[in-house]
Amino acid sequence: MGKGTKRKGRIDSWSSKQDELLAEKVIKHVAEGSTQTKAFEEVGNILNRTTAACGYRWNNNLRKIYKEEFIKAKQAKVAATRSTKKPVEYYNLQGLIEFLQDVQENMYRLRTENDNLQSEIKDLNDEIQTYKEIFQKVQQFSAKVDKVS
């Protein structure tokens, strides 16, 4: 960039309204027993963004901000699931098939949630490593300043 030129915001940057929409849809989907991915797809279609971009924005920026609302949505989903589940009828083939389909859906949901959490852990570990490196540089600088003094 040359002198006197000002850098404007990114063309694809997120507005606060877009962030609010994404958070609202993720929380709604989770509370209703749907997945975050479905919310990312819905918001992506509305905002003309990729599902991955929406997922990245949620996991790296908004999830921390909307942590309490997200936890409440997950709790609401669990409570709704418990209250609407009918006892499994293992003695007939259809009941067994439905049970196994539920297990399969839950496994997919848990794997997705696990992947998201693993990604969040990796990001946090990267952030910790960055802070450690900064701290080490500050200590080295401080030691040099002490020698000069």
UniProtKB/TrEMBL annotation:
<dbReference type="InterPro" id="IPR014243">
    <property type="entry name" value="RsfA-like"/>
</dbReference>
<protein>
    <recommendedName>
        <fullName>RsfA family transcriptional regulator</fullName>
    </recommendedName>
</protein>
<feature type="coiled-coil region">
    <location>
        <begin position="100"/>
        <end position="134"/>
    </location>
</feature>
<dbReference type="Pfam" id="PF13921">
    <property type="entry name" value="Myb_DNA-bind_6"/>
</dbReference>
<keyword id="KW-0175">Coiled coil</keyword>
